[in-house]
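Q: Given only this backbone (131 positions), what sequence would you predict?
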């Protein structure tokens, strides 16, 4: 079992972006949304951009961006929490989840203003089609 750890402000958070959220080569505010408890990201201490992409159902349909944890925390009311997915974990619908030590959550309401601020803080790690 992996313990929850404190993510430092200078850490990078990798996030998959499905191709439907990439318009004219850019990621807009609409891509920053919650899935269940929060917005799912991977901590760079335990993942690479490629590993983050490979966790998608169809990896080639996804790009990967990075956000700096401290920049995310600077946006009210967002909180960044390490939330590793342990062995024998299940999603709300009962489907099994693959273990992921890097898994983290950006928790807090994603209002339009918050999404716009997030859309100004990211950097490309892997664009669509990049290996």
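A: Predicted residues:
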């Amino acid at each position: 079992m992996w313990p929850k750890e404190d993510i430092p402000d200078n850490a990078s958070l990798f996030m998959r972006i499905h191709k439907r959220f990439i318009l004219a080569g850019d990621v807009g505010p609409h891509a920053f949304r919650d899935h269940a408890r929060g917005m799912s990201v991977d901590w760079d201490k335990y993942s690479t951009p490629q590993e983050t992409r490979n966790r998608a159902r169809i990896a080639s349909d996804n790009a990967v961006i990075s956000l700096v944890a401290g920049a995310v925390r600077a946006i009210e009311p967002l909180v960044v929490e390490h939330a590793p997915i342990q062995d024998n974990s299940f999603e709300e619908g009962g489907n099994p989840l693959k273990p992921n030590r890097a898994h983290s959550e950006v928790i807090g309401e994603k209002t339009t203003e918050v999404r716009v601020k997030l859309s100004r803080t990211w950097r490309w790690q892997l664009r669509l089609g990049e290996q």
